[in-house]
Design goal:
Radius of gyration: 13 Å
Number of helices: 5
Low-confidence stretches: none
Order of helices and strands: EEHHEHHH
Bound molecules: zinc ion
Length: 90
């Protein structure tokens, strides 16, 4: 069991607007710090390099890695993102 988190980018990076990540033993805030310091995920490192601000907008706790894979496969992060939902509905 672990935690899945959804990161929303302030601006699009190429076609990406979100990042979905999973963390098991490590605490979420440690994982986020790693992303801020360009350790952990290539996508977030390039997003940082591009000067794009981002934030964690949603967290699912006590979920499995399988849940993360399902979310990624659906490719509809927008539906789960409170920011994008707001934009879509006005
Ligand atoms: Zn979003």
């Amino acid at each position: 069991m672990g935690t899945v988190y959804l990161i929303h980018f302030g601006r699009k990076y190429k076609h990406a607007r979100h990042y979905i990540g999973w963390t098991g033993k490590r605490k979420l805030d440690e994982r986020i710090t790693a992303h801020r310091e360009n350790r952990g995920a290539r996508l977030l490192a390039v997003v940082n390099a591009a000067g794009i601000p981002w934030e964690v907008v949603r967290v699912w706790t006590k979920v499995t890695r399988e849940f993360e894979r399902k979310l990624k496969k659906r490719k509809c992060s927008r539906r789960y993102c409170p920011h994008c939902k707001r934009e879509a509905t006005g």
